């Protein structure tokens, strides 16, 4: 199985030399304590925990899975002890307010933690990870009493949280939610209904689980306008904050999944469970989506994690495994055959994994900076700042979530391919990465949903193309000073510059076509998303290449070999991966006729 090693050199390159996180943290109201020494200590401590505690549990956890008996879930061997160590280390409260026991460090540091934890063991990371949405919701919309009751044990990690949204009949269309909430004389509510796909809905890691639940009041309007939000604890909480009697909410079943098998995904039954309203009546969906952008960045991290872990598994195998001679002649004279890494096609797969992982990391780190400012707006009560950065982040999130998870899945499959037949065998751990990666393109909104959000909602309806024009202007500004350079960076800059102009033109063309044919939006959105992903990743590879070139000339914190490899990986991206955008361009601009002309009854002639 892959032996995970936190990619601290690349993380530090981005933090210190590409994005100037030291300066960024100084601009935040909660960034004063995020000094370089503090950040380095967090990176080192988290890396040790991930490498020594979480990574060794990844494969055995997958093989054992979770078990359900009498409504109680048992997690795989070692998970409970690992979670206790996680809580003892204070990791859960890294970016949450000090008044509730947290360290109140910037949100971006939590994403760095999430990347390392998720790459080491995504199934484990789901348990504390799902608490974040719960905490964010309670923090922004809870009453003073609710915050005092629920935030401290959630921030410490003694309790965990969930988001109970979807139901058997509705999937992503939450307007179809049927769970009922009946008002009680004491101001509480009785919730009745069934929720599905509830990650960490039941487990044995913490003494209480706090469910955030979407439900309808008896007089609620139909559709999304009639959904309210409720806090429903697994165990009711006594006035002194201690855990009280069991509430009427239980796991009815465990989902039998393709991957992330050590993560308990539950069917949750609410049988008159006691709940407490959070936010305003019939505005629960609006409240729940407040931090959805950060949740989707978290899922994008999964795409990065699986590209990175797959690369870390396939690279040593390609160096050790021998097969045939390289086409350009004998490379390893002391052996009758050469290592796989000498074969150009294997190098193509390895470089694809590396280019995607390091390109995705740069994209996510930029989004993390936006998230820091957005959260600062919430914390300081600056609504205008919150909305401005939420809009900026809102443009990034469907691209990050949709594109990076699709590419992460591709990289996971490439990892199996490098191993050949051995990649299909469980003991090597590569097929687990592919199975785990598959869900990332589905939950928190499928790739198609992200694509519709990017093209239909963000680009056409909300901004009339402005979000694209703003980002492509950033691409042009970065590329422009290097257009006349006669080296590899110059070639990359010219390619990125042309792509920015092309992206503007494509956006206008689709806007005009959509006015006449509404199906254009749905027919073009997937290719528009993937095109956007390759264009955005190219922009961030150019940013890295420019810095690497400067450091080679002037000296930097890393070795000459490190910066040279950066430039070479950037060249590979622009020559071998970026051209895929051309095919997406051709497809998205095609007529909708070939998609829509067939009669529904003619899709099959069984």
TrEMBL record:
Residues 42-158 form the Acyl-CoA dehydrogenase/oxidase N-terminal domain. It catalyses: 3-(methylsulfanyl)propanoyl-CoA + oxidized [electron-transfer flavoprotein] + H(+) = 3-(methylsulfanyl)acryloyl-CoA + reduced [electron-transfer flavoprotein]. The keyword Transmembrane applies. It comes from the Bacteria. Its cofactor is FAD. GO terms for molecular function: flavin adenine dinucleotide binding; oxidoreductase activity, acting on the CH-CH group of donors. Keywords: FAD, Flavoprotein, Membrane, Oxidoreductase, Transmembrane, Transmembrane helix. Residues 163-271 form the Acyl-CoA oxidase/dehydrogenase middle domain. Pfam families: Acyl-CoA_dh_1 (PF00441), Acyl-CoA_dh_C (PF12806), Acyl-CoA_dh_M (PF02770), Acyl-CoA_dh_N (PF02771). It is an enzyme of class 1 (oxidoreductase). Gene3D superfamilies: Acyl-CoA dehydrogenase/oxidase, N-terminal domain, Butyryl-CoA Dehydrogenase, subunit A, domain 2, Butyryl-CoA Dehydrogenase, subunit A, domain 3. Residues 488-599 form the Acetyl-CoA dehydrogenase-like C-terminal domain. This is 3-methylmercaptopropionyl-CoA dehydrogenase. Belongs to the acyl-CoA dehydrogenase family. Residues 282-453 form the Acyl-CoA dehydrogenase/oxidase C-terminal domain. Its EC number is 1.3.99.41. Involved in the assimilation of dimethylsulphoniopropionate (DMSP), an important compound in the fixation of carbon in marine phytoplankton, by mediating the conversion of 3-(methylthio)propanoyl-CoA (MMPA-CoA) to 3-(methylthio)acryloyl-CoA (MTA-CoA). The chain crosses the membrane at residues 520-542.
